[in-house]
Amino acid sequence: MKKVIINVVLIITVFVIYFLQSNFFTWFNIAGIMPNLFVVFVLFVGLFTNKTMGTIYGIVVGLLWDLLLGMQVSVNAICLGIVGFSAAIFDKNFSKDSRATIMFMVLGSTIAFEVLSYIINYFIFTTNVEILNFIKILAIEVIYNLILVIILYPLMQKFGYYMENEYKGNKILTRYF
Amino acid sequence: MYRNKKAGIIGIIITIIILIIIVIFSNNDKDVSIFENVASKLIMPVQNGLTYLKNKISGNSTFFTDINNLKAENEELKKKNSELEQSLRELENIKTQNETLKEYLNLTEKYGEYKTIPGYVINKDISNYSKTIVINIGKNDGVSENMTVIADQGLVGHVISVTDTTAKVQTIIDTASSVSCIMSTTNESIVCKGTLDEQSSLKAMYIPTDSNIIQGDSIETSGLGGIYPKGIHVGTVKRVTNTQNITDRSALIETAVDFDKLNTVLVITNQ
Is there a contact between B1 and A154 if contact means CB atoms under 8 Å apart? Predict the structure, then answer.
Protein backbone atom coordinates (compact mmCIF):
# COMPACT_ATOMS: atom_id res chain seq x y z
CA MET A 1 0.00 0.00 0.00
CA LYS A 2 2.82 2.37 0.93
CA LYS A 3 4.51 1.65 -2.40
CA VAL A 4 1.31 2.59 -4.24
CA ILE A 5 1.15 5.89 -2.36
CA ILE A 6 4.82 6.56 -3.14
CA ASN A 7 4.25 5.94 -6.85
CA VAL A 8 1.13 8.10 -6.94
CA VAL A 9 3.11 10.94 -5.31
CA LEU A 10 5.95 10.45 -7.82
CA ILE A 11 3.54 10.54 -10.80
CA ILE A 12 1.91 13.71 -9.47
CA THR A 13 5.41 15.18 -9.05
CA VAL A 14 6.16 14.44 -12.72
CA PHE A 15 3.11 16.46 -13.79
CA VAL A 16 3.94 19.28 -11.38
CA ILE A 17 7.47 19.43 -12.82
CA TYR A 18 6.09 19.38 -16.38
CA PHE A 19 3.78 22.25 -15.51
CA LEU A 20 6.62 24.20 -13.88
CA GLN A 21 8.97 23.62 -16.82
CA SER A 22 6.44 24.57 -19.50
CA ASN A 23 4.89 27.54 -17.70
CA PHE A 24 6.61 28.90 -14.62
CA PHE A 25 10.23 28.58 -15.74
CA THR A 26 9.52 30.08 -19.17
CA TRP A 27 9.42 33.46 -17.43
CA PHE A 28 11.21 32.73 -14.12
CA ASN A 29 14.51 31.96 -15.81
CA ILE A 30 18.12 33.09 -15.64
CA ALA A 31 19.01 34.98 -18.84
CA GLY A 32 16.45 32.93 -20.77
CA ILE A 33 17.81 29.60 -19.50
CA MET A 34 15.52 27.19 -17.67
CA PRO A 35 16.58 24.58 -15.10
CA ASN A 36 16.03 20.89 -15.81
CA LEU A 37 14.04 19.50 -12.91
CA PHE A 38 13.41 16.19 -14.69
CA VAL A 39 17.09 15.26 -14.30
CA VAL A 40 16.94 16.12 -10.59
CA PHE A 41 13.74 14.10 -10.21
CA VAL A 42 15.05 10.97 -11.94
CA LEU A 43 18.32 11.17 -9.99
CA PHE A 44 16.33 11.47 -6.78
CA VAL A 45 14.18 8.41 -7.60
CA GLY A 46 17.23 6.33 -8.54
CA LEU A 47 19.13 7.36 -5.42
CA PHE A 48 16.45 6.59 -2.90
CA THR A 49 14.79 3.54 -4.44
CA ASN A 50 16.71 1.14 -6.68
CA LYS A 51 18.27 0.66 -10.10
CA THR A 52 15.07 -0.65 -11.70
CA MET A 53 12.84 2.13 -10.40
CA GLY A 54 15.37 4.81 -11.40
CA THR A 55 15.72 3.45 -14.92
CA ILE A 56 11.96 2.91 -15.42
CA TYR A 57 11.09 6.40 -14.18
CA GLY A 58 13.87 7.85 -16.35
CA ILE A 59 12.59 6.12 -19.48
CA VAL A 60 8.91 6.88 -18.79
CA VAL A 61 9.52 10.56 -18.02
CA GLY A 62 11.82 10.83 -21.06
CA LEU A 63 9.20 9.20 -23.30
CA LEU A 64 6.54 11.58 -22.04
CA TRP A 65 8.82 14.52 -22.81
CA ASP A 66 9.69 13.14 -26.26
CA LEU A 67 6.06 12.45 -27.14
CA LEU A 68 4.75 15.81 -25.99
CA LEU A 69 7.51 18.12 -27.17
CA GLY A 70 10.52 16.31 -28.56
CA MET A 71 11.40 15.88 -32.20
CA GLN A 72 12.67 12.33 -32.02
CA VAL A 73 11.10 9.80 -29.71
CA SER A 74 13.83 8.10 -27.64
CA VAL A 75 16.54 10.75 -27.14
CA ASN A 76 15.33 12.04 -23.77
CA ALA A 77 14.09 8.57 -22.79
CA ILE A 78 17.57 7.05 -23.30
CA CYS A 79 19.38 9.91 -21.57
CA LEU A 80 17.06 10.05 -18.55
CA GLY A 81 17.10 6.24 -18.32
CA ILE A 82 20.90 6.40 -18.02
CA VAL A 83 20.61 9.10 -15.33
CA GLY A 84 18.20 6.89 -13.35
CA PHE A 85 20.48 3.88 -13.71
CA SER A 86 23.63 5.77 -12.71
CA ALA A 87 21.83 7.21 -9.65
CA ALA A 88 21.78 3.73 -8.14
CA ILE A 89 25.55 3.47 -8.72
CA PHE A 90 26.02 6.85 -7.03
CA ASP A 91 24.01 5.53 -4.09
CA LYS A 92 26.37 2.60 -3.62
CA ASN A 93 29.48 4.77 -3.64
CA PHE A 94 28.46 8.03 -1.99
CA SER A 95 26.53 9.10 1.08
CA LYS A 96 23.24 10.91 0.57
CA ASP A 97 23.36 12.58 3.98
CA SER A 98 25.45 15.47 2.78
CA ARG A 99 23.92 18.29 0.80
CA ALA A 100 27.27 18.83 -0.95
CA THR A 101 27.36 15.23 -2.21
CA ILE A 102 23.83 15.52 -3.60
CA MET A 103 24.84 18.78 -5.29
CA PHE A 104 27.82 17.09 -6.91
CA MET A 105 25.58 14.29 -8.14
CA VAL A 106 23.12 16.83 -9.63
CA LEU A 107 26.02 18.67 -11.26
CA GLY A 108 27.37 15.45 -12.80
CA SER A 109 23.96 14.17 -13.90
CA THR A 110 22.89 17.46 -15.50
CA ILE A 111 26.15 17.72 -17.44
CA ALA A 112 26.01 14.04 -18.47
CA PHE A 113 22.37 14.31 -19.57
CA GLU A 114 22.79 17.46 -21.63
CA VAL A 115 26.09 16.42 -23.24
CA LEU A 116 24.70 13.01 -24.14
CA SER A 117 21.47 14.38 -25.62
CA TYR A 118 23.44 17.04 -27.52
CA ILE A 119 25.70 14.37 -29.02
CA ILE A 120 22.74 12.13 -29.96
CA ASN A 121 20.91 15.10 -31.50
CA TYR A 122 24.06 16.04 -33.39
CA PHE A 123 24.20 12.61 -35.02
CA ILE A 124 20.45 12.46 -35.76
CA PHE A 125 19.89 16.01 -37.01
CA THR A 126 23.48 17.05 -37.93
CA THR A 127 23.11 20.28 -36.02
CA ASN A 128 25.85 22.92 -35.94
CA VAL A 129 28.43 22.37 -33.22
CA GLU A 130 28.37 25.48 -31.07
CA ILE A 131 30.58 24.47 -28.17
CA LEU A 132 30.91 27.91 -26.59
CA ASN A 133 27.18 28.64 -26.61
CA PHE A 134 26.44 25.11 -25.44
CA ILE A 135 28.81 25.48 -22.47
CA LYS A 136 27.33 28.88 -21.60
CA ILE A 137 23.77 27.50 -21.52
CA LEU A 138 24.86 24.35 -19.69
CA ALA A 139 26.71 26.36 -17.00
CA ILE A 140 23.65 28.49 -16.25
CA GLU A 141 21.39 25.42 -16.27
CA VAL A 142 23.68 23.59 -13.82
CA ILE A 143 23.82 26.61 -11.48
CA TYR A 144 20.02 26.92 -11.61
CA ASN A 145 19.60 23.20 -10.85
CA LEU A 146 22.02 23.47 -7.92
CA ILE A 147 20.18 26.47 -6.46
CA LEU A 148 16.90 24.55 -6.67
CA VAL A 149 18.49 21.51 -5.01
CA ILE A 150 19.69 23.69 -2.12
CA ILE A 151 16.11 24.89 -1.67
CA LEU A 152 14.43 21.51 -2.12
CA TYR A 153 17.00 19.34 -0.31
CA PRO A 154 15.17 19.01 3.06
CA LEU A 155 11.96 17.93 1.30
CA MET A 156 13.84 15.56 -1.02
CA GLN A 157 15.71 13.99 1.88
CA LYS A 158 12.61 13.51 4.02
CA PHE A 159 10.54 11.88 1.29
CA GLY A 160 13.63 10.09 0.00
CA TYR A 161 14.28 8.27 3.28
CA TYR A 162 10.60 7.36 3.44
CA MET A 163 10.94 5.76 -0.01
CA GLU A 164 14.25 4.15 0.88
CA ASN A 165 12.80 2.45 3.96
CA GLU A 166 10.03 1.05 1.85
CA TYR A 167 12.13 -0.09 -1.11
CA LYS A 168 15.38 -1.11 0.53
CA GLY A 169 14.29 -1.94 4.07
CA ASN A 170 17.06 -3.74 5.93
CA LYS A 171 19.42 -3.49 2.96
CA ILE A 172 20.30 0.13 3.85
CA LEU A 173 23.95 0.15 4.81
CA THR A 174 25.32 3.62 4.30
CA ARG A 175 23.37 5.22 7.11
CA TYR A 176 24.86 2.89 9.73
CA PHE A 177 28.49 3.71 9.00
CA MET B 1 18.93 15.87 9.82
CA TYR B 2 20.49 19.28 10.47
CA ARG B 3 23.03 20.20 13.08
CA ASN B 4 21.20 23.46 13.34
CA LYS B 5 17.69 23.48 11.90
CA LYS B 6 17.33 27.25 12.18
CA ALA B 7 20.51 27.84 10.20
CA GLY B 8 19.23 25.47 7.51
CA ILE B 9 15.95 27.37 7.12
CA ILE B 10 17.78 30.71 7.02
CA GLY B 11 20.09 29.25 4.37
CA ILE B 12 17.13 28.18 2.23
CA ILE B 13 15.44 31.59 2.56
CA ILE B 14 18.68 33.36 1.57
CA THR B 15 19.06 31.03 -1.43
CA ILE B 16 15.48 31.78 -2.57
CA ILE B 17 16.14 35.53 -2.28
CA ILE B 18 19.40 35.20 -4.23
CA LEU B 19 17.61 33.16 -6.94
CA ILE B 20 14.89 35.80 -7.31
CA ILE B 21 17.52 38.56 -7.54
CA ILE B 22 19.50 36.61 -10.18
CA VAL B 23 16.34 35.98 -12.25
CA ILE B 24 15.28 39.65 -12.10
CA PHE B 25 18.72 41.03 -12.92
CA SER B 26 19.54 38.48 -15.63
CA ASN B 27 16.31 39.25 -17.49
CA ASN B 28 16.59 43.00 -17.22
CA ASP B 29 18.25 44.41 -20.35
CA LYS B 30 18.53 47.82 -18.81
CA ASP B 31 20.78 47.06 -15.88
CA VAL B 32 22.69 50.28 -16.37
CA SER B 33 19.55 52.36 -16.24
CA ILE B 34 18.66 50.93 -12.81
CA PHE B 35 21.91 52.28 -11.44
CA GLU B 36 21.36 55.48 -13.40
CA ASN B 37 17.93 55.83 -11.82
CA VAL B 38 19.25 55.29 -8.31
CA ALA B 39 22.09 57.75 -8.89
CA SER B 40 19.77 60.35 -10.39
CA LYS B 41 17.31 59.97 -7.51
CA LEU B 42 20.11 60.61 -5.05
CA ILE B 43 21.79 63.45 -6.89
CA MET B 44 19.03 65.29 -8.76
CA PRO B 45 17.34 66.91 -5.74
CA VAL B 46 20.70 68.41 -4.74
CA GLN B 47 21.32 69.45 -8.34
CA ASN B 48 17.88 71.09 -8.56
CA GLY B 49 18.40 72.93 -5.29
CA LEU B 50 21.75 74.28 -6.45
CA THR B 51 20.30 75.44 -9.79
CA TYR B 52 17.43 77.14 -7.99
CA LEU B 53 19.84 79.00 -5.72
CA LYS B 54 22.06 79.95 -8.66
CA ASN B 55 19.09 81.38 -10.58
CA LYS B 56 17.90 83.32 -7.57
CA ILE B 57 21.31 84.79 -6.81
CA SER B 58 22.09 85.70 -10.42
CA GLY B 59 19.02 87.99 -10.35
CA ASN B 60 16.74 86.06 -12.62
CA SER B 61 13.96 88.63 -12.68
CA THR B 62 11.37 86.38 -14.35
CA PHE B 63 11.23 84.26 -11.21
CA PHE B 64 9.52 87.07 -9.23
CA THR B 65 7.20 88.48 -11.90
CA ASP B 66 3.53 87.98 -11.58
CA ILE B 67 3.65 84.91 -9.41
CA ASN B 68 -0.15 84.88 -8.96
CA ASN B 69 -0.79 84.68 -12.70
CA LEU B 70 1.61 81.82 -12.99
CA LYS B 71 -0.10 79.95 -10.18
CA ALA B 72 -3.51 80.28 -11.88
CA GLU B 73 -2.07 79.22 -15.20
CA ASN B 74 -0.43 76.27 -13.54
CA GLU B 75 -3.72 75.11 -12.04
CA GLU B 76 -5.44 75.39 -15.41
CA LEU B 77 -2.71 73.45 -17.14
CA LYS B 78 -2.82 70.73 -14.50
CA LYS B 79 -6.55 70.34 -15.08
CA LYS B 80 -6.06 70.15 -18.84
CA ASN B 81 -3.26 67.67 -18.36
CA SER B 82 -5.42 65.29 -16.34
CA GLU B 83 -8.16 65.51 -18.98
CA LEU B 84 -5.65 64.73 -21.71
CA GLU B 85 -4.27 61.82 -19.72
CA GLN B 86 -7.76 60.40 -19.37
CA SER B 87 -8.39 60.57 -23.14
CA LEU B 88 -4.93 59.13 -23.80
CA ARG B 89 -5.75 56.09 -21.68
CA GLU B 90 -8.99 55.61 -23.61
CA LEU B 91 -7.12 55.89 -26.90
CA GLU B 92 -4.50 53.36 -25.71
CA ASN B 93 -7.29 50.86 -25.00
CA ILE B 94 -8.79 51.39 -28.44
CA LYS B 95 -5.33 51.08 -30.02
CA THR B 96 -4.66 47.71 -28.34
CA GLN B 97 -8.05 46.38 -29.45
CA ASN B 98 -7.42 47.64 -32.96
CA GLU B 99 -3.98 45.99 -33.12
CA THR B 100 -5.35 42.58 -32.12
CA LEU B 101 -8.11 42.77 -34.72
CA LYS B 102 -5.65 43.97 -37.37
CA GLU B 103 -3.31 41.08 -36.60
CA TYR B 104 -6.02 38.54 -37.38
CA LEU B 105 -7.08 40.40 -40.52
CA ASN B 106 -3.50 40.91 -41.74
CA LEU B 107 -2.67 37.27 -41.35
CA THR B 108 -5.35 36.12 -43.75
CA GLU B 109 -5.03 39.07 -46.15
CA LYS B 110 -1.24 38.96 -46.42
CA TYR B 111 -1.14 35.32 -47.36
CA GLY B 112 -4.37 35.33 -49.36
CA GLU B 113 -2.86 33.16 -52.11
CA TYR B 114 -2.50 30.27 -49.68
CA LYS B 115 -5.23 28.29 -48.03
CA THR B 116 -4.54 28.60 -44.32
CA ILE B 117 -5.83 27.40 -40.99
CA PRO B 118 -5.38 29.68 -37.97
CA GLY B 119 -4.11 28.29 -34.67
CA TYR B 120 -2.70 29.24 -31.29
CA VAL B 121 0.54 28.26 -29.64
CA ILE B 122 -0.38 26.14 -26.63
CA ASN B 123 3.01 24.87 -25.50
CA LYS B 124 6.71 25.52 -25.96
CA ASP B 125 9.67 23.17 -25.57
CA ILE B 126 10.97 22.74 -22.03
CA SER B 127 14.55 22.23 -23.15
CA ASN B 128 17.13 24.99 -23.52
CA TYR B 129 18.52 23.45 -26.69
CA SER B 130 15.55 22.77 -28.93
CA LYS B 131 12.81 25.15 -29.97
CA THR B 132 9.66 23.28 -30.89
CA ILE B 133 6.14 24.53 -30.26
CA VAL B 134 2.76 22.85 -30.04
CA ILE B 135 -0.31 24.40 -31.69
CA ASN B 136 -3.98 23.74 -31.01
CA ILE B 137 -4.93 22.39 -34.46
CA GLY B 138 -4.35 18.87 -35.74
CA LYS B 139 -5.52 16.14 -38.10
CA ASN B 140 -9.19 16.97 -37.44
CA ASP B 141 -8.60 20.48 -38.80
CA GLY B 142 -6.76 19.28 -41.90
CA VAL B 143 -3.19 19.68 -40.68
CA SER B 144 -0.62 17.12 -41.75
CA GLU B 145 3.16 16.64 -41.51
CA ASN B 146 5.56 18.98 -43.35
CA MET B 147 3.01 21.77 -43.73
CA THR B 148 4.45 25.26 -43.47
CA VAL B 149 3.61 27.39 -40.45
CA ILE B 150 3.70 31.19 -40.68
CA ALA B 151 2.82 34.20 -38.57
CA ASP B 152 1.89 37.77 -39.46
CA GLN B 153 5.53 38.84 -39.72
CA GLY B 154 6.94 35.82 -41.53
CA LEU B 155 8.02 32.20 -41.41
CA VAL B 156 7.66 30.19 -38.18
CA GLY B 157 8.56 26.61 -39.15
CA HIS B 158 6.99 23.37 -40.30
CA VAL B 159 4.81 20.65 -38.81
CA ILE B 160 6.81 17.60 -37.71
CA SER B 161 4.04 15.52 -36.18
CA VAL B 162 0.29 15.71 -35.69
CA THR B 163 -2.29 14.28 -33.35
CA ASP B 164 -6.06 14.63 -33.81
CA THR B 165 -6.20 17.98 -32.05
CA THR B 166 -2.62 19.27 -31.86
CA ALA B 167 0.45 19.63 -34.06
CA LYS B 168 4.13 19.80 -33.15
CA VAL B 169 6.04 22.46 -35.06
CA GLN B 170 9.79 22.66 -35.51
CA THR B 171 10.57 26.37 -35.56
CA ILE B 172 13.24 27.82 -37.86
CA ILE B 173 15.30 28.87 -34.80
CA ASP B 174 15.67 25.24 -33.69
CA THR B 175 19.29 24.09 -33.99
CA ALA B 176 18.21 21.14 -36.13
CA SER B 177 16.42 23.37 -38.64
CA SER B 178 17.83 24.42 -42.04
CA VAL B 179 15.93 26.65 -44.45
CA SER B 180 16.96 27.32 -48.01
CA CYS B 181 16.65 31.07 -48.56
CA ILE B 182 17.44 33.84 -51.02
CA MET B 183 18.58 37.39 -50.44
CA SER B 184 15.83 39.56 -51.90
CA THR B 185 18.21 42.18 -53.33
CA THR B 186 20.56 39.84 -55.19
CA ASN B 187 18.44 36.68 -55.47
CA GLU B 188 21.41 34.57 -54.36
CA SER B 189 20.83 31.40 -52.35
CA ILE B 190 21.92 30.88 -48.77
CA VAL B 191 21.08 28.36 -46.05
CA CYS B 192 19.72 29.65 -42.73
CA LYS B 193 20.28 27.42 -39.72
CA GLY B 194 19.01 27.72 -36.16
CA THR B 195 21.55 28.70 -33.53
CA LEU B 196 21.97 28.46 -29.78
CA ASP B 197 23.28 32.01 -29.72
CA GLU B 198 20.14 34.11 -29.52
CA GLN B 199 16.42 33.46 -29.29
CA SER B 200 15.30 35.18 -32.51
CA SER B 201 18.22 34.77 -34.87
CA LEU B 202 19.52 32.42 -37.54
CA LYS B 203 22.96 31.76 -38.93
CA ALA B 204 23.22 32.24 -42.70
CA MET B 205 25.76 29.86 -44.23
CA TYR B 206 27.06 28.91 -47.66
CA ILE B 207 27.02 32.54 -48.82
CA PRO B 208 28.32 32.69 -52.42
CA THR B 209 31.91 34.00 -52.49
CA ASP B 210 31.12 36.75 -55.00
CA SER B 211 27.96 37.78 -53.22
CA ASN B 212 27.67 41.23 -51.72
CA ILE B 213 25.65 40.60 -48.57
CA ILE B 214 24.88 43.75 -46.63
CA GLN B 215 23.29 44.57 -43.31
CA GLY B 216 19.54 45.08 -43.60
CA ASP B 217 19.09 42.79 -46.63
CA SER B 218 15.71 41.05 -46.61
CA ILE B 219 15.79 37.23 -46.57
CA GLU B 220 13.01 35.08 -48.05
CA THR B 221 12.45 31.39 -48.58
CA SER B 222 13.74 30.09 -51.91
CA GLY B 223 11.22 27.28 -52.35
CA LEU B 224 13.98 24.67 -52.61
CA GLY B 225 13.85 21.64 -50.36
CA GLY B 226 10.18 20.89 -50.81
CA ILE B 227 8.90 22.03 -47.44
CA TYR B 228 8.64 25.81 -47.52
CA PRO B 229 6.93 27.62 -50.42
CA LYS B 230 8.84 30.40 -52.19
CA GLY B 231 8.73 34.02 -51.12
CA ILE B 232 7.90 33.85 -47.42
CA HIS B 233 9.71 36.51 -45.44
CA VAL B 234 12.25 35.02 -43.00
CA GLY B 235 14.08 38.05 -41.60
CA THR B 236 16.78 40.63 -42.23
CA VAL B 237 20.57 40.52 -42.13
CA LYS B 238 21.71 41.83 -38.75
CA ARG B 239 25.47 41.29 -38.92
CA VAL B 240 27.95 39.85 -41.41
CA THR B 241 30.89 37.88 -39.98
CA ASN B 242 33.86 37.94 -42.31
CA THR B 243 36.55 35.31 -41.90
CA GLN B 244 40.02 34.92 -43.43
CA ASN B 245 38.64 32.30 -45.73
CA ILE B 246 35.78 33.90 -47.70
CA THR B 247 33.99 30.56 -48.12
CA ASP B 248 33.51 30.35 -44.34
CA ARG B 249 31.86 33.71 -43.88
CA SER B 250 28.46 33.79 -42.27
CA ALA B 251 25.75 36.26 -41.35
CA LEU B 252 23.40 36.63 -38.45
CA ILE B 253 19.78 36.90 -39.56
CA GLU B 254 17.26 38.51 -37.26
CA THR B 255 13.99 36.63 -37.70
CA ALA B 256 10.93 38.64 -38.65
CA VAL B 257 8.91 36.69 -36.10
CA ASP B 258 9.52 37.42 -32.43
CA PHE B 259 9.44 33.88 -31.06
CA ASP B 260 9.17 35.09 -27.47
CA LYS B 261 5.83 36.72 -28.21
CA LEU B 262 4.52 34.24 -30.76
CA ASN B 263 0.87 33.39 -30.08
CA THR B 264 -1.09 33.26 -33.33
CA VAL B 265 0.03 31.18 -36.34
CA LEU B 266 -1.32 30.04 -39.70
CA VAL B 267 -0.75 26.62 -41.22
CA ILE B 268 -0.54 26.63 -45.02
CA THR B 269 -2.49 23.69 -46.38
CA ASN B 270 -2.10 24.17 -50.18
CA GLN B 271 1.49 24.90 -51.05
Answer: yes
